[in-house]
Structures are given as C-alpha cells and as structure tokens.
Amino acid sequence: MTGKVVTIASGKGGVGKTTSVANISVALASHGQKVTCIDGDIGLRNLDVVLGLENRIVYDLVDVIEGRCRLRQAMIRDKRLPELYLIPAAQTRDKTAISPSDMVRLCDELRQEVDWIIIDSPAGIERGFKNAIAAADRVLVMTNPEVSAVRDADRVIGLLEAEEKGPAALVINRYDPAMVRRGDMLSVEDVLDLLAVELIGIIPEDENVIVASNRGQPLALDGKSKAGQAFQNISRRLMGEQVPYMEFDSQNLLQRLLGRKK
Amino acid sequence: MMSFLFGRKKSANSAKERLQLVLIHDRTDLSPAELDSLKDDLIETISRHIDIDPTAVTITVAQDGRSQRLVADIPLRNVGRRRGH
To answer: N or C: which end of chain A has fewer CB within 10 A?
Structure first.
C-alpha cells in the first residue's frame, strides 16, 4: 500500500481547515478508503473535538516522533467508520517540537498502512506550515470569498510553488450564493481569476457545520446537508472521479465554470 | 450611472479590484513607489541611447496566470529624418 499525503493549508486562520480535514477524511473513509488524519496544529489541538474523539486521546503526534509510543498506539480509531484514524496534536508543546523531516519519516511509515493521510496545517506560513507540507503529495488551499482570506491564500499558493509543492488545488469555503447574486461577495469566478489555480471544491455556507461540530459528528457522516455533500464531492475528486459542481440555484454557475476551463 | 444614482458600486467589484492590485504587489514584492523609481532609472538609461518622450512612458505589471511580466511602453520621439553628416 502506498498512501497519498494531502495537506490542507490556508495562511489565514478560521477559514475552515479543521472542519474540512475532518469531513474530507470522513468522506474518504465512507467510500471504503483507509484514512489517517493528522492534526498539525501543535499547541492548538482541535481536530479531535471536531471529530468527537477528544476523550480517547492517550498519545499524540509528538509522542510518536519522540519515540514514547509506537505509531499504532497514537492512531485513535473512529468507530463510526471501518478505517478512519486520528493522530492528535500535542497540546502542551509547540511547533518547534517537530521538524519537516520528522513529518516525512512519519508519513513514509504511514503510507505503508493507509490509502490516505490528511494533514491539518496550522494557520500561518512558518514552521507549523512547513512541517505540514513537508510530506505532502498534494496541497489543498482553503479560502473564503473575502479579501483577507484570498490574499493569504495567494501567498500560500506562491510559497507552495517555490517549495515545489504546487500546483495547489483550491477549496472555497463559506460560499453564500445569495450574497454573490446581490454583488456583495466575490464569486467563484472572481476568486479563480484572482488566484489562477485549479478548483477542487466549493462549500456553501451552512449552519449545519456548527451543529455538527457542537456534537462532534462530522457532516459528511450523513451527507444530507449541502456542505456535507460538498465534502463528499471533494473526496471523490481526490479519488480521481469527475464530479460536477453543485448548482446553488444560480442556473448557469455550472456552465460558467465549465466554460472557463481550457 | 446606475451606481451614481443608487449609491456605491457593488462591494464584490471593489473587493476584486483591490485584490488585483494587492496581489500584484505581494507577488512581485514591488511597491508602487519602487515601480516609479524603476521607471525613472529606465528613462534615464534609455535616454542616453535614444531620444524618448519621458512623459509618455508607462510601466505596468501584467498577469499571465500566476506569472507576472513587466511591460514597458516607451514611445520614441520622432527624429524626422536621419541626422545629417
């Protein structure tokens, strides 16, 4: 087995990286894939609560890297799915506790065990980000249709190119079609024009995201909500399927998106 | 005209226009002031070799996907005919 490493990064904090890592991992696992997600945000652990696995932590990422436990012991199994595991971040350490080469070594070992390794990068472009992308085969850059998030996404995309981790694939989160129609939110096309990267997902604004995180039950588990479906679509695109983009009741969004492809 | 009558233009348009400028400067690490000083240097150097109209020179950063190119438009002064011997 040679697992693929996918890192989700954004530059700006609060755009929805952790939620996306949780949901994309759940969605991949629901398609029968063997998945491990890693919380790369050392000192600000969160992927565990979003997944509802916070009470099951014994060992963490730094414990594995520093040799206090075996890899298997730090992989918390999510019992709702056949093959989904979480390696939580350490909460009482900081980003300097691990290095990019530690991450490469860890992921090389994990690749033998699972199909997918999904890494949640911390915000920022420093050590934590460098650790998170070191082993990545693919990086998804997450943004919101909003000036500061788009600007930071551009910075991250540029850094990924410089580190030869490109081309990045873009996820636009918290998309509000009604605001776009009123001319009060950047459209998907606007964001793609500005950032000039490939698109891999559009996640509509959906209050179910907060309800799901309140309960620790990722949306993609049931897949009824719009956002849950959007995460399912991203996971299928990662697996190489051609999945059409959602309609968001603006009839020609799909046509416009297809139209702009080369 | 509509935007004049009904208030300001759509905020998404402002966002896009502002971002276009900001991203050029972020990507090239070139501020408007630095671009101006580059323009002055260019005018000075080129003027040493050929007669140009310094007021008509424009220097812009053009986008081509994720790469940028510096585009200089430098109109030459009409010399009329070749300088006589």
So the answer is: C
Domain interval for residue B35: 31-77
Residue B59 placed within a domain: yes
Show the tokens assigned to A24. 């994309």
Q: Which residue has the tokens 């530059």?
A: A11
pLDDT in tens, B2-45: 545 556 789 999 999 999 989 988 998 888 888 899 999 999 99
Residue B61 DSSP SS3: strand
Say yes or no for a CB contact (<8 Å) between B15 and A187.
no
**What would the two tokens of residue A189 be?**
């096309």
Q: How many residues does chain A have?
A: 262
Q: How many domains does chain B have?
A: 1
Tell me what pLDDT residue B6 has: 57
CB pairs under 8 A between A and B: 45
Q: A interface mutation test: which of B11, B19, B22, B29 has the most A CBs within 10 A?
A: B19
ipTM of the complex: 0.85
Q: Which of A155, A184, A186 shows the shortest C-beta gap to B16?
A: A186
Q: How far apart, in Å, are the Cα atoms of B41 and each of B1, B34, B37?
A: 41, 11, 6
Note whether residue B56 is domain-resident.
yes
- The answer to whether residue B12 is domain-embedded is no
Largest CA distance in chain A: 55
> Which of the residues A150, A172, A187 would you substitute to probe the B interface, choosing the one with the greatest number of B C-beta atoms within 10 Å?
A150
Shortest alpha-carbon distance between residue A137 and chain B (Å) = 21
In chain A, the domains with their CATH numbers are 4-260 (3.40.50.300)
Q: What is the mean pLDDT of residues A110-125?
A: 97
